[in-house]
Amino acid sequence: MPELPEVETMRRIVERELTDLRLSSIQLRLPKLLRGSPLPTLDPLLGRTVTGARRRAKVLVTDWSDGLSLLAHFKLAGQLAVERPDGRRSVAGHPVPNPSGVYPHKATHLLLEFDDGTTLFHSDIRQFGWLRLMETDDVEAALEAFGFGPEGVGSDAITAGQLGQRLARRRIPVKQALLDQGIVAGLGNIYVDEALHRANLHPARPANSVVGGELNRLHEAIGWALERGIEQGGATIVHQRAHPRDGFPAAHGREGEPCLACGGPIAKTRVGGRGTYLCPNCQPVA
Ligand SMILES: [Zn+2]
């Protein structure tokens, strides 16, 4: 599913490909994408230009001229694609529709056409994602209402001290705590598995038992995992490859394959209801 690195990759695509372009047509094929939107249609965007894109946790915020902003959450299976007039395509998020296939796909629910011929395709085979159009002045309050914790990566990323304070209040498995968006924003299943593997921590360890050197290792490992994901354009795309690149992913999705650290087989289990990959040798229970 689109996790923070995929959404960051989408943000970069929007900023790079769409900034300063003027919107000339809108085809919204699935109106329920706009459920909960302060402005009930996208029509006010016609004739406006994209001024930039930002991200908070897994919410993509596209800013438009004259004070409107479009928030998007891609949930389990959202995908964003931008095609230039010369056919060059940039894609991030879920691997369906096939990034090299024909667009629009039957799961493409929104097409935005810009006056230079560039087209944005927003697709979502599961239809859990949403769009909300609002005044730019209202964006901060809307994001605040989600109760996100600090970011896991970037200039205002969580510090080791903040992470320790947040984990100290929880006796639940550390994996489950890290998936809580109120503790660290934007960490999903893949990146938590990768961070715990790198930090040599068993996913079922009580969150409040991770202190001292282990806490510092975990903090470093969270930033490392998210940065590798962003570098590689998001793990959804990574997963289409047979093997890891630059040591990532080291554990997730690699059941039975050799651990990149010790060579032992990666195991799959369940922690907090989620499929979880670990190296039993590098990540002992106690
Ligand atoms: Zn190992």
Characterization of this structure:
With about 290 residues, the chain is an alpha+beta fold. The chain folds into 2 domains: about 5-145, MutM-like, N-terminal (N-terminal domain of MutM-like DNA repair proteins); about 160-280, Helicase, Ruva Protein, domain 3 (Orthogonal Bundle). The protein has 7 helices and 11 strands. The strands form 3 sheets. It has a 5-stranded antiparallel beta sheet with strand order 1-7-8-5-6, with helices on one face. A 4-stranded antiparallel beta sheet has the order 2-3-4-9, covered by helices on one side. It has a two-stranded antiparallel sheet with strand order 10-11. Bound molecules: zinc ion. Zinc ion binds near residues 262, 264, 281 and 282. Zinc ion binds near residues 261, 264 and 282.
Question: Keyphrases for this structure?
Answer:
N-terminal domain of MutM-like DNA repair proteins, binds zinc ion, globular, 4-stranded antiparallel β-sheet, 2 domains, alpha+beta, Helicase, Ruva Protein, domain 3, 286 residues, 5-stranded antiparallel β-sheet
Topology:
Layout: H1 4-18, E1 23-28, E2 50-56, E3 59-64, E4 68-73, E5 78-83, E6 89-93, E7 108-114, E8 119-124, E9 130-135, H2 139-144, H3 160-168, H4 174-179, H5 189-198, H6 212-231, H7 235-238, E10 267-271, E11 274-278
Antiparallel strand pairs: 1-7, 2-3, 3-4, 4-9, 5-6, 5-8, 7-8, 10-11
Bound molecules: zinc ion.
